[in-house]
Specification:
heterodimer; A: about 170 residues; alpha+beta; Rieske Iron-sulfur Protein; 2 domains; 4-stranded antiparallel β-sheet; 4 helices; B: about 425 residues; mainly alpha; two-stranded antiparallel sheet; 17 helices; about 65% helix
Chain lengths: ~170, ~425
């Protein structure tokens, strides 16, 4: 067999493998993507919450996208405490002003950023939240202060529809 | 694979065997030459096969009554417990069977560690075993989620969140695993599917595990290579079959004790409360067989590094044949290794204990020391020990220490002198 013919055969093999690989990938992708959130899960994306009956110092927990969202009407002491913290003392530096649109209302995902447990209200070393699973302490702004969690509790997208209603999502 | 030519007696047998040599395989399995000094620690392979079959059979039956839906799963498990004929028995066998499976596998693994069964030429058997162990942990975790109790739900949340520690793609992977923005119905249905699949993967790997074992043959308590078949071996049937059978009966007594007398002692009461995405139980811990790794996870104060440490603790076992540099297999002839072996056993038990305790104060300190020692054992002690340790003389055959007549003339002469 001549040198030239061998090269031609090699090219055909390589081209066949390449086409086969593209075909296989095209079939595999739907198999993988079917596991991502489906249309019905994505459709349940926003929730409206009535906050008219909440006094300072009260927290309610609502379900949004299957996850708990804490809505807390903070007391003046808590707000003062959150604002007094120096940014350099924080593991994940964020100002309280950037976390609460209205300082009196803290709206955040009640999900510990370590491994997803629901932290307990008014517990821990910083008067905020404490996660019972692996011992993460959060302050009155929901910022991580001590323990294994890497970041502050997440703030979801929300807005005040009127003075009595918050829309999450 | 066959050690000798086999010809079936009957004409039909011969006709069939020429077309599919199943009878040759059966003959290989019954005549398989086995070291005659195998002790009871070697019976756990058979016990594990029994555990796997038990889980598959009881699981199949449970799947006839269980409903994999977030609104119905919890009630369907109670339906199995209260309404289905013998449902309580089948579920308790399945639930405790998982614990018995892990009890047996830990004994099986620590037997390998003591007698050096992972060493050349048995590295592939060992690595297949580690893969089986990983799949067992996956199956156990997925199965624990199915009753959809509080521990199911929050266990699923915590374990799937481990993937969120991966930089950049972590969050995307977690959403993909969940099929939503939290653990919910899509998570439950896929977990059920995978829980059903994995035992059959394990079954396939068990076949490979045994196949790979039958190439070099069994290791043995004195860890030497033996001639097969020879004075040092006995055929698998009936000698090992009857010994394995007796050990299995003893094991089944323990199994039955748990099923009939304390069926819930290894579980958590919180799992009899239906899953609630708004409340995490005050004290969440995994099942006992995962506690040492859970302790390692919690002993590291950083999320990503904690996950890395936990995975490394398991995967480091796969590298063991190369980390242990000693040429001598059995700890019987390794006086120093024998001591380190028992320290490791104690270390793993301590990790298991602190894994069940809250991660704070003294417990956390103990967990950190024990975690450090665990890695030290594999990464420092074992490689150095192979070079430094003065091992004891190894006999040249199994019969030699008992009967004399060793092919090693010097040893035999010494022995004669001693006796005169």
């Amino acid at each position: 067999m001549s040198e030239k013919k061998t090269k031609r055969r090699d090219f055909l093999f390589t081209a066949t493998y390449a086409v086969g690989a593209v075909g296989a990938a095209a079939v595999v992708w739907p198999m993988i993507d079917q596991m991502n959130p489906d249309a019905s899960v994505k459709a349940l994306a926003s929730t409206e919450v009535d906050i008219s009956s909440m006094n300072p110092g009260k927290t309610i927990t609502v379900l949004w996208r299957g996850k708990p969202v804490f809505i807390r009407r903070r007391t003046q002491e808590e707000i003062a405490e959150a604002k007094a913290v120096k940014l350099k003392d924080l593991k994940h530096p964020e100002k309280d002003e950037d976390r609460a649109q209205n300082p009196e209302w803290l709206v955040m995902l009640g999900v510990c950023t370590h491994l997803g447990c629901v932290p307990l209200d008014q517990k821990g070393d910083y008067n905020g939240w404490f996660c019972p699973c692996h011992g993460s302490h959060y302050d009155t702004s929901g910022r991580i202060r001590k323990g294994p969690a890497p970041t502050n509790m997440e703030i979801p997208q929300y807005k005040f529809v009127n003075t009595n209603t918050i829309k999450i999502g | 694979m066959s050690d000798h030519e086999y010809t079936p007696n009957s004409k039909f047998g011969k006709w069939f065997n020429d077309r599919l040599p199943l009878l040759t395989l059966a003959s290989h399995l019954t005549d398989y030459p086995t070291p005659k000094n195998l002790n009871y620690w070697w019976t756990f392979g058979g016990i594990l096969t029994f555990c796997l079959i038990t889980q598959i059979v009881t699981g199949l039956v449970l799947a006839m009554h269980y409903i994999a839906h977030a609104d119905m799963a919890f009630d369907s498990v109670e339906h199995i417990m209260r309404d289905v004929n013998y449902g309580w028995l089948i579920r308790y066998i399945h639930a405790n069977g998982a614990s018995m499976f892990f009890l047996a596998v830990y004994i099986h693994i620590f037997r390998s560690l003591f007698y050096g069964s992972y060493k050349s030429p048995r590295e592939v058997i060992w690595i297949i075993g580690i893969i089986i162990y990983l799949l067992m942990m996956a199956a156990a975790f997925l199965g624990y989620v199915l009753p959809w109790g509080q521990m199911s739900f929050w266990g699923a949340t915590v374990i799937t969140n481990l993937f969120s520690a991966i930089p950049l793609v972590g969050e995307g992977i977690v959403t993909w695993l969940w099929g939503g923005y939290s653990v919910d119905n899509p998570t439950l249905t896929r977990f059920f599917t995978l829980h059903y699949l994995i035992p059959f993967l394990i079954l396939g790997l068990v076949v490979l595990h045994i196949w790979a074992l039958h190439v070099p043959g069994n290791n043995n308590p004195i860890g030497i290579d033996i001639k097969k078949p020879s004075k040092d071996t006995v055929p698998f049937h009936p000698y090992i079959v009857i010994k394995d059978g007796f050990a299995l009966l003893m094991f089944m007594i323990v199994f039955a004790f748990f099923v009939f007398y304390t069926p819930n002692i290894l579980g958590h009461a919180d799992n009899y409360i239906e899953a609630n995405p708004l409340v995490t139980p005050a004290h969440i811990v995994p099942e006992w067989y995962l506690l040492p790794f859970y302790a390692i996870l919690r002993s590291v104060p950083d999320k990503l590094l904690g996950v890395v440490a936990m995975l490394s603790a398991i995967l480091i076992l796969a590298a063991l044949p190369w980390l242990d540099t000693s040429k001598i297999r059995s700890a019987v002839f390794r006086p120093l290794y024998r001591q380190f072996y028992w320290i490791l056993v104690a270390d793993v038990l301590i990790l298991g204990y602190v894994g069940a305790m809250p991660a704070e104060g003294l417990y956390l300190l103990i967990a950190r020391v024990a975690t450090a020692y665990y890695f030290l054992h594999f990464l420092v002690v074992l490689p150095i020990l192979g070079y430094k340790e003065r091992t004891l003389p190894v006999p040249l055959s199994i019969t030699e220490p008992v009967l004399g007549g060793s092919p090693n003339l010097a040893l035999a002469k010494n022995k004669e002198k001693f006796e005169n």
